[in-house]
Amino acid sequence: MEKAYFPMFVDIKGMKILVVGGGNIALRRVKTLLEFGADVQVIAPELCAGMKELAAEGKIRSELREYMEGDAESAGIVIAATDSRAVNRAVQEECRHRKIPVNVADDRDSCDFYFPSVVITDEAVIGINSGGEDPGRVKRVRSGIEALYGNRRDYSDDRIEK
């Protein structure tokens, strides 16, 4: 692994987490964050169907607009998951300036942390990551863990690692 990251479990219950982007990658991250009680705000000009559903159910707060400098100011963690490299870079630059941990979906080298593949069982929460180098291996490891211990999660996510 080129760049080793320390695996750390953090209590994010009630933490304001900003997600910039409203597509399927952002949706997968939002679903995982919600499982741990995060206060999720999504900023995107458009939301995918699943994100619209979460907003309609009151599970997330959403603003249908472009990202603007200053949006990350009060966030504890930020996820940049748009389909625009320029927007993702702007989010990353603001977060670095404000010293806010950021995950940039399209550039693992710009991430302060990786988003792991997560298995939740009755006995444990298991995070799996390969440093972004081999998502296929992560999927195989996750499948093996699920075969042994199950997974309480009610959806499948093959590409949660970044």
UniProtKB/TrEMBL annotation:
Catalytic activity as recorded in UniProt: precorrin-2 + NAD(+) = sirohydrochlorin + NADH + 2 H(+)
Record key words, sorted: NAD, Oxidoreductase, Porphyrin biosynthesis
SUPFAM superfamilies to which the protein is assigned, alphabetical: NAD(P)-binding Rossmann-fold domains (SSF51735), Siroheme synthase middle domains-like (SSF75615)
EC number: 1.3.1.76
Key word NAD present: yes
Keyword Mitochondrion attributed: no
UniProt superkingdom: Bacteria
Annotated protein name in UniProt: precorrin-2 dehydrogenase
